[in-house]
Specification:
- By secondary structure, this protein is α+β, with helices and mostly antiparallel strands.
- The chain has two domains: 1-25 and 387-436, no CATH class; 31-386, Carbonic Anhydrase II (Roll).
- Helix content is 25%, strand content 18%.
- The strands form two sheets. Strands 2, 3, 4, 5, 6, 7, 9, 10, 11, 12, 13, 14 and 15 form a 13-stranded mixed sheet that branches.
- It is globular.
- The two termini are 22 Å apart.
- 48% of the residues are buried.
- The structure holds 2-acetamido-2-deoxy-beta-D-glucopyranose (2 copies).
- One 2-acetamido-2-deoxy-beta-D-glucopyranose is lined by residues 272, 274.
Length: 436
């Protein structure tokens, strides 16, 4: 439905209108009994960052499980102050990575404690951490054929008539008591929660519904880098990953399923200083500020909403890839939204003030440039699903509409106007007086 062709336009219009009305604000009740996925930490438990049990069982569910039993204070000290804490940390899995995932078996972790710790190019340095080119030494899947991230070249992406728009189902819901679990795992800052009505990623030709598990970020030391995906040669200063797991699968299942996860990537660019700051980004960065040091904390954050992290326009690039952190499972259906969100320099600086280790306040310890290098595409096809706004605008130049008229067709509240214009233009396009 995405890359519709003109002769299917009328049908498309009908379908999109229906989808649009059923989309993000849908109040349908989600499954309420999968608390394990986004379990609320038990503040009374003494177990912090428990070792992971086996390689394929560390997805967001285990991350959540880790969070579920972590004492915030114990976690702060256990997570990253020694070699064993990190590589084997259950919190890892959710972390930084494309999705919170699996870690090696306890036996492996124990015997390779030191060397199996992984890090990023510019901050792994002398810390006995594996740089990305060595992740595969201990996480073999990291050298597989369908790794992420990749560079997306927009003019090479295939507009796919069969792709459906994504639906962010129950994304307007908040966790119980607006309590979020805020996890700084030393690789990224991550948020998860226990929902009475669980948010899901639906439609998008995914073939299944995917339950929200957690979201986390990758960022750079400067504005010129930080995102994992690169679009037309451009790196963005920040990339958000909203991780979802197939609702029918356990964490272990998902790691073995080539489509076990679906992650939505949202790119951020620096806001023009003359623009009105986005209040939602202020709420987000205030929440990020809570995780300056490695910890797992349960915090009440009333202003943090998933729906605010999704751009108004939802054209997306689709490809099959992997988690972007060890163990790099090749189990991810990626959806990179074309439209970036904006954040001010000051807000970006909040991410740049996070630390990798508890109790270390030096600049060398700052968590920066936590993005994996671009991976080989290996013949993979990137498909593009333009939303209705992009579809309408793509046609305007072809029909010679003036620039001022084009500007008057605004997204959002004026979607219906845009649609009407699109409709009329299409009719004009096919009228006998026009030659196609
Ligand atoms: C900021 O946005 C305004 C209005 O959109 C534009 O006129 C101005 O050139 C922009 N400034 C920068 C530095 O991009
Ligand atoms: C929410 O979190 C607060 C701590 O911020 C805690 O005291 C409260 O019990 C939590 N409520 C629920 C329902 O989890």
């Amino acid at each position: 439905m995405c890359g519709m062709v003109l002769h299917t336009f009328f049908l498309l219009t009908t379908v999109l209108i229906h989808r649009s009305s059923a989309a993000p604000a849908d109040a349908h009740h989600g499954s309420a009994h999968d608390a394990a996925v986004t379990g609320v930490p038990d503040r009374h438990s003494a177990v912090a960052f428990p070792p992971t049990d086996h390689p394929v069982d560390h997805n967001s569910a285990s991350a959540a499980a880790a969070a579920g039993h972590a004492d915030p204070h114990a976690a702060a000290s256990a997570g990253h102050t020694d070699n064993s804490g990190h590589g084997a940390s259950a919190a890892n899995k959710g972390h930084g990575g494309g999705a919170a995932l699996p870690q090696p078996s306890p036996a492996t972790a124990a015997s390779h404690d030191k060397i199996e710790q992984w890090g990023y190019e510019t901050i792994a340095s002398s810390k006995d951490e594996l740089t990305p080119d060595h992740w595969s030494d201990f996480y073999p899947k990291c050298s597989g054929p369908r790794q992420s991230p990749i560079e997306i070249v927009s003019h090479s992406a295939m507009i796919d008539n069969t792709l459906e728009p994504l639906e962010f189902f129950s994304y307007d819901r908040q966790p119980v008591a607006t309590n979020w679990t805020v996890t700084n795992n030393g690789h990224a800052i991550q948020f998860s929660g226990k929902f009475a009505h669980e948010p899901e990623l639906r439609h998008g030709s995914l073939g299944a519904n995917y339950r929200f598990a957690q979201f986390h970020f990758h960022w750079g030391k400067s504005d010129a880098r930080g995102s994992e995906h690169v679009v037309d040669g451009k790196r963005f200063p920040l990339e958000l990953h909203l991780v979802h797991r197939k609702i029918t699968e356990t964490a272990g299942d998902a790691g073995r399923d080539s489509t076990g996860y679906s992650i939505v990537g949202v790119l951020f660019e620096v806001a023009n200083e003359t623009e009105t700051p986005n209040i939602h980004m202020q709420a987000l960065t205030e929440a990020v500020q809570l995780g300056i040091y490695p910890t797992v904390q349960l915090r009440t954050i009333p202003n943090l909403n998933l729906i605010d992290l999704i751009p108004e326009h939802q054209s997306y690039y689709r490809y099959l890839g992997s988690l972007t952190t060890p163990p790099c499972h090749e189990s991810v259906v990626w959806n990179i939204l074309k439209t970036p969100l904006k954040m001010t320099e000051a807000q970006l600086n909040v991410f740049r003030s996070l630390h990798r280790h508890a109790g270390i306040t030096t600049d060398e310890d700052l968590l920066l440039d936590n993005y994996r290098p671009i991976q080989k595409q290996n013949g993979r096809v990137v498909r593009f699903c333009p939303d209705k706004y992009d579809q309408a605008h793509a046609l305007i130049p072809d029909i010679g509409l003036s620039r001022s008229a084009a500007r008057n067709i605004k997204p959002g509240a004026s979607e219906h106007v845009s649609f009407a214009a699109f409709l009329l233009l299409t009719i004009a396009y096919f009228s006998p007086t026009k030659s196609v």
